[in-house]
Design a protein that fits this description.
disordered C terminus, elongated, mainly alpha, 126 residues, 5 helices
Amino acid sequence: MAPKSPSVPITWRTPIGRLRLASRVEGTTLILLIGVAVPLKYLAGQPQLVSAMGPIHGVAFIGYLLLLAEATASGGWNPREVLRTAALSIVPFGPFLNERFLSLKAAAIARNNDIAGPEAPSDQRS
C-alpha cells in the first residue's frame, strides 16, 4: 500500500499553495476543453464552447506557469521537479496526477521552514 500524502492545507498564502490551487483550475479547464468543448464542436457542430473555454484555459495555463515560476524562485526545487510539473500540465489529468507530488513538496517546504524558523535571516553577511 502506498504511503498517504501528508495533509498540507492548500492556501493562497504560500507559493506552493497558490501553485496547487492553480494546478486544479488548470487541470479542470483542460478536461472541460478537451473532454466537453472539443467533442461538441466536432460531433455536434457547436463551436461556441471552444470559443469560450479556449481563452479561459489559456489564461489558467499561463497563470499556472507563472505560479510555477514563483514557486521555483521561492526555493527548494530542482530542475527535474520543475520540468515534471510543467510537462504534466499539458497532459489531460496530469495536474491531478501531480497533486501527490505537490502535496509532498508542500510538506517538505513547510518542514524546512519550521526548522529554519520564521525569523531566520536570509543569507545575510555581517
